[in-house]
Write a structure and sequence with these properties.
Blueprint (H helix, E strand, L loop, with lengths): L2 H12 L5 H13 L1 H19 L9 H13 L3 H8 L2 H21 L5 H7 L2 H15 L1
Length: 138
């Protein structure tokens, strides 16, 4: 193993994340390389010191301040803001699509088979009846 490879594996070795063969190769390198051994020991001591420290706590109010800045930067939130942004033409188109879909769903879910529905209506008759249905709501 080269020193460059050992440096890349040092943190994983300290954390116990190396597989058996990689750990064995890494430790064999440490036996033969004084420089990497010194670095590994230093990093191990530093990790031990960090483990003895209590976890860092953010300052009081930091969460609230960060969240308010995020909301301010993100812009309008929620479905109501989105709905007003798209404009009345798009709202109308979306409502018409939803109602047509509802009408089609009611027709398809009425218990008839698909072949019976096709023989009952042509597509033009169906769209015309859906249009009548929608215009009665206006």
């Amino acid at each position: 193993m080269k020193c460059e490879d050992a440096h890349q594996k040092m943190n994983a070795w300290i954390d116990g994340e190396l597989s058996l063969d990689k750990r064995t190769a890494f430790e064999h390198h440490l036996v033969n390389c004084r420089h990497c051994l010194e670095q590994a020991e230093e990093l191990h001591r530093l990790t031990g010191l960090l483990d003895t420290r209590p976890p860092a706590r953010p300052a009081a109010g930091l969460k609230k301040k960060t969240l308010s800045l995020f909301i301010e930067e993100a812009g309008p939130q929620g479905i109501t803001d989105w709905w007003t942004i798209i404009g009345w033409r798009m709202q109308g188109a979306m409502m018409a699509s939803a109602l047509i879909g509802l009408g089609i769903g009611c027709q398809l879910g009425s218990g008839w088979s698909y072949a019976e529905q096709l023989s009952q209506y042509s597509i033009f008759e169906f769209l015309f009846s859906a249009g009548d249905f929608l215009s009665s709501w206006a």
